[in-house]
Write a structure and sequence with these properties.
This protein is about 30% helix and about 25% strand. With about 160 residues, the chain is α+β, with helices and mostly antiparallel strands.
């Protein structure tokens, strides 16, 4: 309960070991909780608190494991692959080995909307240059109605 009620900022630099003692770590509760959420003693105490808040309704189902949810196949094949296929069919362009370096927002009528996402990575394979030097910045992705345009301007085939 003490963890649940602690202010977030008081947990920023604390691990689970910093807030619990051996009595908790030796309990069946900790065994169930770790089984369900893959926590380790050295994980963030704040993350643990946030999980408590989000999943408090499952605590009663820990002793009989009724709170645990299983998929027919492994989680990757049951959850990730169908979602990836759905998103690809909807036009989402997945970019791996890419880092978001900036998001440019437009604030209008009290609404904050992301208009451009600047990324850097190895995706486009073109040699972009800034001030005569090779740049790792690959391109900017403009957003249209919340979706990426199909092809960034700087990498479009000419």
């Amino acid at each position: 309960m003490k963890l649940f009620m602690t202010k977030d900022e008081d947990l920023y630099d604390k691990t689970i070991e910093d807030v619990f003692d051996d009595e908790v770590f030796d309990s069946t509760f900790w065994l169930y909780w770790r089984t369900m959420f893959a926590f380790e003693n050295w994980h963030s105490a704040l993350e643990m608190k946030l999980y408590f808040q989000r999943f408090i309704h499952h605590i009663a189902g820990l002793p009989d494991f009724s709170a645990l949810k299983f998929t027919k196949y492994n989680q990757y094949e049951s959850l990730i692959l169908p979602m990836q296929k759905y998103l690809e069919e909807a036009g989402v362009d997945f970019q791996f080995n890419t880092e978001v370096t900036n998001v440019i927002f437009e604030i209008k009528d009290g609404k904050k909307v992301a208009k451009t996402i600047e990324v850097q990575g190895k995706r486009c394979g073109r040699g972009h240059h800034i001030n005569g030097k090779r740049s790792r910045i690959c391109h900017k992705r403009k957003l249209y109605r919340g979706n990426y345009l199909r092809r960034p301007e700087s990498c479009a085939k000419r």
